[in-house]
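Hey L., structure's done. Input below.
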Amino acid sequence: MNPRSIGFIGIGRMGLPMAANLLAAGHRVQVWNRSPHKCAPLVNAGAIFFDSPAALASHSDVLITMLTDAHAVAHVLFETGVASALPADATVIDMSSIAPDAAIEHARRLQTLGIAALDAPVSGGTKGAAAGTLAIMAGGHAEFFARMRPLLTSMGRPVHVGPNGMGQIAKLANQLIVAITLGGVAEALAFVRRAGADPKAVRDALAGGFADSRILQEHGERMLQGNFAPGGTITNQVKDLEAASAVARTLGLEAPLLHLMRRQFAQLIAQGDGDLDHSAIFKLASEGG
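Output:
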């Protein structure tokens, strides 16, 4: 499938490199963002800028959204004229991380207009977005996914995980694993440092063993350097953990580790650290008396 034009809404830390990879793959990319200046690097690389989301939608065979939360997605799709402006056979791919029930409702509303919908949140952070290696978890009709798979492959590794909403369920599972692992790595490195061992040497020693992980290597390095410049922010981590907690309640699942880490990350927000990278959970582990 080679769409004639791709609209991309949401040119932020993730959206910018994702849209750049679509351009690099030879796609015709059209962009809109609430802060227009953020689109400049893409326009310089050949993207077409539209001054309203509805105008962009009217010229897009595929519309990709990469926005902050479900409210922002619903606002752009249904309150700015986007959904009504899209061609009847268009496809919307929402790559934002939002609650599964919101993704299902957005897909229902779009499909009543004849518009195909996929929820396709991602994991891999800004590094994966830049490298085009994002894990892409897609929910929606298998036929829609098959048509969009070549396009999604320009940004990473897409996998179809089920009907609408299941992409978001997979992303929440991802965030649950990430949050718990971040907490474990932070606590282990703080433990090693407090005991008087060299945490960097211990981290190197664990490489290749059962305790090894990308989080130990990449985020562990951030922790030891005190480098908490945002890739994935604590605020977004809490948003996703709150969504996961809501789903767990509806499923009757206790999920004690999920709730523990949600409280831990929320504590960082309460002390003013919400805009830091989620590896800053190390600050709490290091401060523990």
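The radius of gyration is 20 Å. The longest strand covers residues 156-162.

-- N.
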